[in-house]
Design a protein that fits this description.
about 600 residues, Glucose Oxidase, domain 1, Enzyme I, Chain A, domain 2, TIM Barrel, 4 domains, 8-stranded mixed β-sheet, 8-stranded parallel β-sheet, 16 strands, binds phosphoenolpyruvate, binds magnesium ion
Amino acid sequence: MARKLKGIAAARGVAIAPIVHFHTTLDHIPTWKVTAEGVDAERARLSGAIATVAKNLTDLQRELAGSLGKHDVRIYDAQLSILHDATFRRDVEAEVGQQQVNLEVALQRVIARYEGVFAAMENPAMRERAADLRDIGRQLVGALLASERQKYTADGIDYLFAADEFLPSDAGILDRAHIRGIVTAHGGKYSHGAILARSLGIPAVVGIEQIMLESATGGMAIVDGDAGLVVLDPSPEELAEYEQRLREQRAVDRRIAEVRFQPSVTPDGTHVHLFANAEGVRDLEALEVDAIAGIGLFRTEFAFMERRQFPSENEQVAMYRRAMEGAKGKPVTFRTLDVGGDKPLGYFRMPEERNPVLGWRGIRLCLDWPDILYTQMRAILRASALGHARILIPMVSARSEVVRCREVLQQLTTDLKATGVPFDPNIELGVMVEVPVLVHVLPDVLPVADFVSVGTNDLVQYLLAVDRDNQRVAKMYDPFHPGVLRVLKQIADAADTAGKSASICGEIAGDHWFTPILVGLGYTELSMAPVFLPRVKLMLRSFTKAECRQLAARAVAMQSTREVRRLVQEEIQPRWVRQLGSNEEARR
Ligand code: PEP
Ligand code: MG
């Protein structure tokens, strides 16, 4: 029987395909009953998984041997000894046989039991073993899932990706030709996983906590990224209805795509420059450069996150050069490494933090480890000789941080000049506005910055005190809050007074329902995932600057988010529906 699960609409569109489970934690794993005849098969699965994880660990240990300290090398030894421990194996097999549960559940239970014992020990080294044990369990479950999904992904069948989260590193391993939709247990509309799904143009629903428990690899499902709904085992009627929606969606997308090479200008002649966000060089390969003004945000950290160790300066230069070549002389805005918070770097040990989003992240981390910043800025400078590169600093909260970045830049340019290495001496240094207090000190910061770019994803999270990754409070994360709009106006006004350019590179820049309001607030540079470009451009071409100003003035003066949403529904939506001649669009 069909089951409908409600989550958060993260990326528009509909997808119909079998679900395939990717990674999960030990907390969300599927359960099924194993009969006496099935026990041997589970044993064989355990042997296979142990062999796979042992191989991965020894490969990794060998690969990192030169760059790891003694303590880190021992972590792998400790994990390998758990993996080959005869008692551990016996206990897992006994759990399968006696409790008649699948291997994943047996692993979950045995590890929980062992963990309880280790956690209660006085010795901190023994408590650390508990973490290793859990990690081994996660890797074993990962290996089991991988062998299950091989049956689907190896044959090039279309599938729906299901996992606890959609991680930046997943984007690198996915078969883009066959992934149709994404559904995750965690996350919100503005999580990095959701941002990635949207930029890949893959329909996605996030925040369905029970998805890994309720679904199984191979089960048919529908992802409705417009309504935030997943239908498991759909009926023939539901399938027919969604297939019809899929056809309509494709027809509308084709119509909207027609505008992408037309000028991005309002009917009364105001030019708005539309830039692309890129998560990696891969994104530039598929980019229609003629349709954009440049790259407004290159999230360099994703390339760092997909790797197993820091890329060297030369590797970074190669990557940034490829990005510059891809942009064909148009500006490329390289954001310096923005890890920490919700973007951990596996090979860089970060302390456990109670509030990582308020913790050691972005430029704070890079200024504490200046080697990272020096290497990256030097690489960007070397690549800048090829065209028009810009540097953007994330998570700035004080003028002094910008001044320190300027000093680094100054020192690097002096060194490069002295050694005759070519670079662009006029490279611009920009500041991301994500930390609310920065808005209040912009008049002090702007004289030391060449431009600002508003990272609304974080700015809204901090303004509203709502975690962008937490599905429980996702409803409260609403950038249409009049307070948010007033802050956006304050930033645009401050930049205008200082004669510096201000752009928006957070997700609202690519949300066409926002476009007239943002233009009305004074923004003439918007940077978004390329998939949004046609919609934003079409919207832009539908409202005069005067109308945009009026809409923004009304929105800013409103007293509730609901009122602003009503304004969008009554004043912006009808014109959009008329433009497209499709009511289907109103819900997206
Ligand atoms: C933002 O915060 O709006 C932003 C663009 O950065 P990220 O989404 O990568 O945190
Ligand atoms: Mg951010």
